[in-house]
Amino acid sequence: MDADVVIVERLSLLRDNVDYLKTESVAAHTFREYTGNVRLKKAVERSLHVAVETCLDIARHVIAREGFRFPHDYQDAFRILAEEQIVSQGLLPSLLDMARFRNLIVHDYARIDDAKVYEILKRRLGDFDAFAAAIVAYLGAA
After folding, report:
1. Which of 53, 37, 54, 51 is nearest to 114 (CA)?
2. Residues 71, 46, 30, 113, Cα dihedral to 10°
3. What does each C-alpha distance from 32 to 41, 117, 118, 120 come to in angstroms?
4. Does the pTM of the predicted model rise above 0.90?
5. Phi-psi map region of 85: left, alpha, beta (phi>0 left; psi -120 to 50 alpha)
6. Residue in 122, 115, 118 with CA at minimum distance from that of residue 26
7. pLDDT of the chain, 142 residues: tens digit per residue
C-alpha cells in the first residue's frame, strides 16, 4: 500500500479517536465524575493510547517514506519530524510527552495517574490536532 494512503488512513483514525475524546471531555464535567465512571476511564485511556500510537505510526511512515534516519525510540520518531521541520519545535515537547504517556500506559499500566489522564482529556487534545495539521501540510507540500 502506498505510504501516503496509509498516512491518510491513519489521520482519519486519529481524527475519529480525538473526536470521541472531545465528546467525552465535554461529558466529564469534573474530575470526580471522571474517576467515578470506570467505563469512561477505561474508554478514555484506550482512546488516548490509540491516538498516540496512531501519531507514532504516522511518524514512522513519514520517516520511512522520506528515508530519514532510523528512530532509536518512540520519542526519537517525533524528534526526527521536528529536525526535518515537518512538525514545529514548539509542538515537540507535547509530542515527547505523548511518547512518554504511551510508554506509561503500555508498560506501567498499574500506575496510571487519573489526574494526568484527565488533564490530557481536558487540556491537551489540541496537541493531536496540531500534529495532524502538520502532517496534512507536509502531505500538501510533498
Report:
1. 37
2. -60
3. 11, 13, 10, 15
4. yes
5. left
6. 122
7. 577 899 999 999 999 999 999 999 998 889 999 999 999 999 999 999 999 999 999 999 999 999 999 999 999 999 999 999 999 999 999 999 999 999 888 888 788 899 999 999 999 999 999 999 999 999 987 6
Report yes or no: 28 and 120 within 8 Å, Cβ to Cβ: no
Instruction: Please state which CATH number belongs to domain 3-141.
Output: 1.20.120.580
Whole-number pLDDT of residue 107: 86
CA–CA distance, 35 with 118 (Å, rounded to integer): 9
Residue matched to cell numbers 487540556: 123
Instruction: Report the pLDDT value the prediction gives residue 142, as an integer from 0 to 100.
Output: 67
Q: Are 115 and 31 in contact (CB under 8 A)?
A: yes
Sorted by where each begins, the domain ranges of the chain are 3-141
Residue with cell 526535518: 84
How many CA atoms does the CB half-sphere of 137 hold within 13 Å?
A: 11
Contacts of 12 (CB under 8 A, 6+ apart): none
In the block, which residue shows the cell 496510571?
112
What is Dmax (Cα atoms) for the chain? 47
